[in-house]
Amino acid sequence: MYFGKGHSACYGCPLPIAVKNVVEALDGKCFVVNPTGCLEIISSQYGKSAWGVPYIHSLFENAPSVATGIVAALEVLGREEEGHVVVFAGDGATADIGVGNLSAMLHRNDNVLYICLDNEAYMNTGNQQSSTTTPYAYTTTTPAGKILPGKVGRRKDMVAFALAHGIPYVATSSVGFPRDLRRKAKKAIEFRGAKYIHVHCPCPTGWYFDPSKTVNVAKLAYETALFPIVEFEYGRLIRVKKIKKRKPVEEYLKVQGRFRHLFKHPEGRRVIAELQKIADENAIRYGLDK
C-alpha cells in the first residue's frame, strides 16, 4: 500500500484522494517530498506514517530545492530508474512561501513532478487566505464585513506561472475526476524535465460544506468554469475537459459557508456577477463550452 490508512485527515479531506491516485498511477515508484502543511501533518506524525514510498518532509519554502537534490543524488548514484521524484505541496507552499524556489526549479527544468494540492488557503494553521483563494471568500484573515465582502484580489494563475518557464508539461486536474488525475500523472513522467500539475482540492472544514460532498463541490468548480481542467505540452494547449452544460457560479457558491455572506451583503449581487464574469472569461479563454 503506497499511501495507507494511517493518517489523521478530516472527514471528506481531498488530499488522500489526490495522493493515493497519483502514487498508485506511478506504481509506487517515486520519492516523495512534502513541505509543511496539512498533508504533512495528517500523514507523517511521529510513529504514524501513512507512506509506503520513500518520503521526506521539507521546510515550508524549500521542497523544490530538496527535490532537486534528490534528482542529483539519483543521477550520481546511477539509480534514476528506481523512481520519479514527486513533490506534493499545498497552495501556500507553492504560490506564496515557496514560489521563489519553485521558479528556480522550473527555470532549471529539473526532472521533478511538482503537484500543487490547492485547497485555497492555509488550512493547517486556521484557514488564512493564500494567493489562490477565490475572490470574496471568507477566511480568518479576510473576514466579511460591512466594507469588504471577503478576500480582495483574484487568484494567482499558477498555470500561467508554470508555462512562463517553458517546461515540458503543465496541467490542471481535480479530486472530482480521479481518472483524469491518474492519466495526467502517468503522462507527466514521460517527459524529462520539470512537470507541474495543479490539483483542485475542496476543503470541507475550511470551506464549510458537508464532508460527504467533497467530490460534488470539486465537480461544481469545474462545471461552472471557475476551475478549468486543461493540459499543455511544451507551452501548447493540447487538451481541454469540455463542459457539457455550464452551470452558473451561484450554484457553486451557495453550497459553501465561506461564501454565505455574499447572499446578504449589500455588495453581494455585484460580487457574484464579478465571479460569473471570471468564469465566463475562463470558458472563452480555453473554449470550455461544448
- The averaged pLDDT comes out at 97
- Ranges with pLDDT <50 over ≥5 residues? none
Strand content: 15-25%
Number of alpha- plus pi-helical segments:
11
Q: Let me know the number of strands.
A: 10
**Helix/strand/pairing class, anyone?**
alpha/beta
> Numbering strands along the chain, what is their spatial order in the largest sheet?
2-1-3-4-8-7-9-10
- Portion in helices: 25-40%
The Rg value, from CA coordinates, equals 18 Å
Question: How does this structure look, described?
Answer:
With 290 residues, the chain is α/β, with parallel strands linked by helices. Helix content is 36%, strand content 17%. It contains eleven helices and ten strands. A hairpin with a 2-residue loop joins strand 9 and strand 10 (236-240).
Strands, helices and their partners?
Layout: H1 15-25, E1 30-35, H2 38-43, E2 55-58, H3 63-77, E3 84-90, H4 91-96, H5 99-108, E4 113-118, E5 121-122, E6 128-129, H6 158-163, E7 169-174, H7 178-188, E8 195-200, H8 204-207, H9 214-223, E9 230-233, E10 236-240, H10 249-253, H11 268-286
Parallel strand pairs: 1-2, 1-3, 3-4, 4-8, 7-8
Antiparallel strand pairs: 5-6, 7-9, 9-10
Helix pairs in contact: 1-7, 3-5
